[in-house]
Amino acid sequence: MSGQVHSERQGHLIVVSLLHPGKLNAMSCAMWHGLRSVFQEIAQDPGLRCVVLRGDGGQFCAGGDIAEYPDFRFSEAGLRNFHEHEVWPGLDAVQSCELPVVAQIEGNCMGAGLELAACCDLRIAGTSTRFGAPIAKLGFPMAPREIELVAAQIGPSLAKEILFEAATLGAQRLFQTGFLSRVVDDAQVGREAMATACRIAALSPQAAKLNKRTLRALQAGSLAGDLAADPAAYAWADSSEHREGILAFLEKRSPEF
Amino acid sequence: MSGQVHSERQGHLIVVSLLHPGKLNAMSCAMWHGLRSVFQEIAQDPGLRCVVLRGDGGQFCAGGDIAEYPDFRFSEAGLRNFHEHEVWPGLDAVQSCELPVVAQIEGNCMGAGLELAACCDLRIAGTSTRFGAPIAKLGFPMAPREIELVAAQIGPSLAKEILFEAATLGAQRLFQTGFLSRVVDDAQVGREAMATACRIAALSPQAAKLNKRTLRALQAGSLAGDLAADPAAYAWADSSEHREGILAFLEKRSPEF
Amino acid sequence: MSGQVHSERQGHLIVVSLLHPGKLNAMSCAMWHGLRSVFQEIAQDPGLRCVVLRGDGGQFCAGGDIAEYPDFRFSEAGLRNFHEHEVWPGLDAVQSCELPVVAQIEGNCMGAGLELAACCDLRIAGTSTRFGAPIAKLGFPMAPREIELVAAQIGPSLAKEILFEAATLGAQRLFQTGFLSRVVDDAQVGREAMATACRIAALSPQAAKLNKRTLRALQAGSLAGDLAADPAAYAWADSSEHREGILAFLEKRSPEF
Prior knowledge:
Number of helices of chain A: 10
Shape of chain A: globular
Order of helices and strands of chain A: EEHEHEEHEEHHEHEHHHH
Radius of gyration of chain A: 19 Å
Oligomer: homotrimer
Distance between the termini of chain A: 42 Å
Strand content of chain A: 15-25%
CATH class of the largest domain in chain A: Alpha Beta
Number of strands of chain A: 9
CATH architecture of the largest domain in chain A: Alpha-Beta Complex
Number of domains of chain A: 2
Strand order of the largest sheet of chain A: 1-2-3-4-6-9
Helix content of chain A: 40-55%
């Protein structure tokens, strides 16, 4: 089995790593499955507050594992199965995660890598990281759900540049237009991603989950008025985190969540 | 009663000021009401062409008045009432204003301040202005309508950075990614906001109202095709402003609106 | 008849030029018709892979031909007919083109010019190019379909700055916020646009068409899940371009499309 997804818990954090040595962590079918498994475990661990997604060896992910493609992509059923029942459930596991997910992006962030980055909430990259999806060189388009995901996060213009011209873009361009939260020296990406995750983990976990739920619902097409009308929309009024946050502020002390 | 909203008419312009001395103009319930009243008066004044929204004393608005919160926020009914019947009608009064609204943003633009800025049409800020909504420190999420409002204007990535990490962002970042129309020296923000409002007031008021109506309808989910099919969509064909604008151009003179 | 639209085929490319000498290529009614005709011919030419849209004489397009306006714009029926049956079909012909369209943007890109640029997929501009839609000086608003088109590509904040303040913006601002793919020296715009079109034409035409179809459907409000569920969504599995792209990669050679 080629390629794996590892996870390592560190207090309130969990670091999820893509590993496919010699292939710049290109996603194999086994890795799409592995990613789903790891995020299912994360969903059942109430002590976690934040996830870091990274690739091993200074590379985020260079795309899909093309060596596997001739086995299944040239049949319509196989191709549909791959995108709808392998890739998408893996991506959806990341973007459906209740916890904030920080992408630690180094080296190549291409194709499936760009899609995985688009599923994360905050994105920290190194100055020399490259972004793209040069699949027009491979003779095929991006699947509909994957285009929607990527275009929603990088915007229509950059999506077209990447898809029509097979352009690769630098970190500075993706910071400037808003996709990346920050760009740091290549050697500092891991440190900055962990520092970000620690900052998030020290804040109210309830606020993070509720904000993420609302943002995801809006992205999926829900109307804010409908979300607000939900009888449960303000059920957190009497919660201990809400009381602690406000009382700590008024007592001029740091809150403890 | 703590905190007030003042307004001062100057020809075709009206300057609306948030005042809450000693609290960086944090919005009290009284101020949400006051804001609504001021914008109701604006709606009934046919001589006005542009609104400037600012905060007193070199501060836009640092958020909500947290000192008031223990009185009502820990009950579900009180919390819902606050967001749905105090905050939202205030925000909606600003964003529903028929006239272009210019935000003059100095100092802190946090929480409710960021939401108010998002309700404006043009945003002028000073180089040292800070933006954010660090409510994850206060143990609570942003209400659904308020998240939708903010995310639509600053984009999903910055919204997540602000909400999950309680990040505060500088004016340059919010200019670069498009939220701010321009950034000027702190000492020039008021002058630039007024100059912008004067430029707007010299242009066609009819064009401004019709453009704003269309932009608001699109933002609220209307389809352009439906708006265009409205029998009234082109009712301005024979209006004096339309004639004046086109004839002035052809006669190589400045139009008078 | 004042103003024309020319086209010139060059191998897999076609260059479409706006020509209205002495008027900075302002769009006359004849030119809106001409644009539609040219794109209808493009739709029937299976050998084409990419379109370049440009204006003659170092100018993209300065707007509509205002000299024609008194003849029809002051009647409601004439105005509606102009926007819905002259302008919109011309714009829609460009944005509905199955092939990637590269805008070569020099000089003025105003009003109808900005709208035409918004219909293209990649946008290359010169450093001194100016962008705007100062129609508030002409006493009239932008038509609903045209506002939707422009705001979707430049974002709500820049759209408001352009419409309410009649602001003209430089190329750097529109690159920074994502509308432009790149900005080059004024003298290099044509060369860079052609080089971009050649790069696109060397890639998989099938991938371009399928990606564009998906992006257009999403922009028009389709859900990715519905597009993916279409029985034809993966019909390209066994296509020669798909096989060629993947096999060429595995054989470490350049693909031939």
